[in-house]
UniProtKB/TrEMBL annotation:
Stored InterPro entries: Calcineurin-like_PHP, Metallo-depent_PP-like, Metallophosphoesterase_sf, UCP008292
Residue span, Calcineurin-like phosphoesterase domain: 9-211
Lineage: Bacteria, Pseudomonadati, Bacteroidota, Cytophagia, Cytophagales
Gene Ontology biological process terms, A to Z: lipid A biosynthetic process
One Gene Ontology molecular-function label: UDP-2,3-diacylglucosamine hydrolase activity
Entry protein name: Metallophosphoesterase
Domain of life: Bacteria
Pfam entry (one): Metallophos
Keywords: Hydrolase, Metal-binding
Length: 246
């Protein structure tokens, strides 16, 4: 009998918030992830204050990583307007950024976007009212459309492939539970869940909600994991990354 293919093991974490003073702090983390997984997902807020100099420190630390890395940016990475410099500093043959793009590693398809806020379910903001409010809603719509495009690209080019999504903002309310309810609209948006449901995604990983909940699922049963580093540390993970087998 032919042997089944070994599962592809994913390590995932968000919100590592690397600072300029972190030289040497992350080497063991990247070595451990490389030893235990086949691919590493970094779900936004790679830097603490959004400075390219912080990304330079992270780039040096990531030399210890010997497995492919797939990243999205977070709100902290955008804070100083240096997000393109951060991306350029980190990207290389082993480090991939997705923003509606698709990457295939070991016959598993990965895509993702930063995402945006807007609220969940019946309390999701609608395209109504002042121009500023409409612009806020439009940002979430645009991010959901980019996510849909990446997933569709995988479907067209690799119709039988298993699909994994990574975000920074949450696509569901369940994984932000624990955060003050007043800020839930700024932690994610149900619009991001719609492409996950339509495109039969196997699992989605995000961060951003530091005191949210580790695990939930969409209305169609897509598994969603909030892998923000503070949540993993509170849950007692020896190394702050979550492991998932595909």
């Amino acid at each position: 009998m032919p042997q089944a293919a070994a599962p592809v093991r994913i390590a995932a974490v968000g919100d590592i918030h690397v600072r300029e003073t972190d030289k040497g702090k992350w080497v063991e983390f990247f070595k451990a992830a490389s030893a235990q997984a086949d691919v590493l997902l970094l779900c936004g807020d790679l830097t603490d204050h959004g400075y390219a100099k912080e990304a330079e420190v992270l780039a040096e630390e990531m030399r210890a990583c010997t497995i492919p890395v797939i990243c999205v940016l977070g709100n902290h990475d955008h804070d100083k307007g240096q997000h393109e410099e951060i991306r350029s500093c980190l990207i290389n043959d082993n480090v991939h950024f997705v923003d509606g793009d698709a990457v295939v590693i070991k016959n598993v398809g990965f895509t993702g976007v930063k995402g945006f806020g807007g609220g969940f379910g019946h309390h999701m903001l609608s395209m109504f009212g002042e121009t500023a409010n409409k612009a806020f809603v439009q940002e979430a719509v645009d991010e959901a459309l980019k996510l849909e495009a990446g997933l569709s690209r995988l479907d067209v080019e690799y119709p039988d492939i298993k699909k994994i999504a990574l975000l920074h903002y949450s696509p569901i309310k369940a994984t932000v539970e624990g955060e003050p309810e007043a800020i839930h609209p700024f932690l994610g948006c149900s619009r991001l869940a719609e492409p996950l449901n339509r495109q039969n995604v196997l699992a989605c990983f995000h961060g951003h909600a530091h005191i949210g909940t580790l695990e939930g699922e969409t209305s169609h049963g897509v598994k969603v994991f909030n892998v923000a580093k503070p949540i993993l540390q509170k849950a007692g993970f020896a190394m702050p990354f979550f492991l998932f087998d595909v």
